[in-house]
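As a warm-up, study this chain.
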Amino acid sequence: MSTFTSPAPPPGTQDPPPPTTGAPPARPSPRRGLRRSLRRDWQLYSLAVLPLVFFLLFRYLPMIGNVIAFRRFEPGGSILGEQWVGLRYVRMFLSDPTFWQVFRNTLWLGGLTLLCCFPVPIVLALLLNEVRRTALKRFVQSVSYLPHFLSIVIVAGITMQMLATDGPVNHALGWFGHDPVRFIQEPEWFRTIYVGSEIWQTAGWGTILYLAALTTIDEDLYEAARIDGAGRWQQIRHVTLPGIRPTMMTLLILNIGTFLAVGFEKILLLYNPLTYPTADVVSTYLYRTGVESNSFSYAAAIGLFEAVIGLVLITSANQLSRRTVGTSLW
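Now compare it with the structure written out below.
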């Protein structure tokens, strides 16, 4: 049985191959792609309108008012100040010993808050992750989350009532023969009171992000670690902590950025003239200077100085985190 094979055409009679230019296919312009995306997902983009308007009106637009840090502002006059005075108010607070005292207090409270409050949610999340009884785990989570939903006024009121001269803490000290301690009136106790109340109020809520990060760790890594003979502490050290490191570094950078912005409301509610030597911080000093004394330009200069330091801190922390662990905000 034979098969028929068509003869090959003589050379020179084949059709030439289509010309190839080597140019990549045309890409749609970014503007056209943006318009197409807006038409397709306009419902999703509309959700961002109100947050953008909020930040524009209450975050970026008020930045124009920083100009009064270099102009003399008088109540009832121009909103941007009456007369250009240059760095007069900057030189004033740089030579003011009261400012440097409150600045040192701010560094102390900010450092203690960062040092004590940042690790507690991590430890609590690791402990909750080891709990195998669901009911107990939910109970501990609910109890630890509850203080976050309390108003700052309620937290300050509870703290003052607990530490009052005739409060429960002094009653307990009396059972051991100790004289009542005036915690609220003693300057040396204020930092301990503030940091302790911050831990109680924020530790439970801070565990939410870490518990969410723990769920993203692959269980195969724990299985491999157990096969290699790793115990629970070794698994936490070599698997769990590296798994939540990006979350830890992101929150650390954000906390460093707000290092000087210690809780204004809580300090304002807890402190009094007797505790000014350790309790008065930049934010409360700004409140008394700007609102109570009507020195708005002087207060604006101090606030601008605080904002510049915060910008330097968060930028430095971001660069350091990027170079050391490879995690950064931008």
